[in-house]
Amino acid sequence: MTTSVTETNPTVAPKILILGATGPTGRHLVSQAVSRGHDVTVLVRSPEKTADLKGAKLVVGDARDEKALIQALKGRDAVISAIGTPASPFSEVTLLSNATRSLVTAMKAEKVTRLIAITGLGAGDSAGHGGFVFDKLIFPLLLRKVYADKNRQEAIIRDSDLDWTIVRPSVLNNKPGRDTIRALTDLSHFHGGTISRQDVAKFVLDQVGNDTWQHRSPLISW
After folding, report:
1. Are strands 40-44 and 16-19 parallel, antiparallel or unpaired?
2. How far apart are CA 164 and CA 116, in angstroms?
3. How distant, in Å, are the alpha carbons of 32, 47, 190, 202 from that of 55?
4. pLDDT tens, 199-213?
5. N or C end of the chain: smaller count of CB under 10 Å?
6. Are 126 and 187 in contact (CB under 8 A)?
7. What ranges make up the beta strands (E) of 70-162?
8. What is residue 4's predicted lDDT score, i.e. its pLDDT?
């Protein structure tokens, strides 16, 4: 399935928690969420990195810590997880799955049901659709262990009974956003693509009050 997506503006903006807010995509999420009128909380380990996250309530803590997550979830309607991890050619990666496991437990404790999580092209059934350079060089040499953990992360989300959407961006860039974003679940004719972090944030925020992609894992690209 392929759709063209445009931004929506809900009448009452849900209150959201953003994880991974100090990352390059997370910063777009915070600024766009605030501009849309959302009440935004961010959970961060390094408050010194948050000076430019204007308009967001700050909770300091580790995303793997259920107690910190429960504190950050107070009064929230939805969660956006933009947690990332650097390439790890040699060491096992567990941050994404461990943080997601703690998040699911904390969300159930606080009765917050809506979760939108960003993973990436190469996770799940999107593996093998990144084009020659990504699939044959970048993925096996640099990202294999990261994506093994993304796959564990996605499995935890699917088994959670939450109202989840998993968003898989194609290769990210820092270009300006475009008017439309392709969202695909049929990848039979997709072999590589790019999308800006700005447009990833736009698409993800559009899902907060929208169930179009609930319990689905669209790949988004230009």
Report:
1. parallel
2. 6
3. 11, 14, 38, 18
4. 999 999 999 999 999
5. N
6. yes
7. 78-81, 114-118
8. 46
